[in-house]
What we know:
two-stranded antiparallel ribbon, 11 helices, mainly alpha, 76% helix
Amino acid sequence: MRAQRRAIQTITIWVKRQPPKVKALMAVVAGMASLVLLRAVVHDHDNLFVAAEAVHAIGIALLIYKLTKEKTCAGLSLKSQELTAIFLAIRLYCSFVMEYDIHTLLDSATLLFTLWVIYMIRFSLRSTYMDDKDNFPIYYVLAPCAVLALLVHPSTSHNIVNRIMWALCVYLEAVSVLPQLRVMQNTKIVEPFTAHYVFALGVARFLSCAHWVLQVLDTRGHLLTALGYGLWPSFVLISEIVQTFILADFCYYYVKSIFGGQLVMRLPSGVV
């Protein structure tokens, strides 16, 4: 185990010494290698999307455990949870009126868990809520996403309102974690359960992104045509990629902390 830690520390030090362009290239190569591995191992790529939703649900379960057992919501962003509830509610609405399937049931469960977390933060554990650290203005997220949804949305045969709501859901999901990252940026110290939750979000976002990318490759681009025409298909993929890269830096330091035997993450300046 010590030899493994020394090897990881050596690699970490080497990576830190590399210029930003080299680090970016390494991240891209690692992502592509992961996609190739997933394509070879997972034959039905729809399972990746189900796995993403399951990992998200696990992350929410960790939060509920933290709130109920430790009786504190310190380090958690209420605004991120509210944004999550909003996009899940919109996605559920779209599922019921556009395409009801297994994902509707999974989203229903995740929404209920998220609403429970919001209730705990707002009422039961309000005294431990770090209101001064959760200072990311929520309208910085809602307003741009709403405008973008009005401008770029699916071109399917569904009602225009439903199509705009669908687009709003996709865009909100891509940036809903930003308030949580701001809280961690303000505190610089991330306790274990919050770190596990955000890492679970990062894994879920990567699996979801991998699902869309591999589906496009498998259908040789025909999936983009099925999503409609214009800018919308490209924006769906861009949103998935944005979600992944927003959390990539945090996930790197999370893995580094875990292998380094640290129970509490300490983020350096400039991270997230």
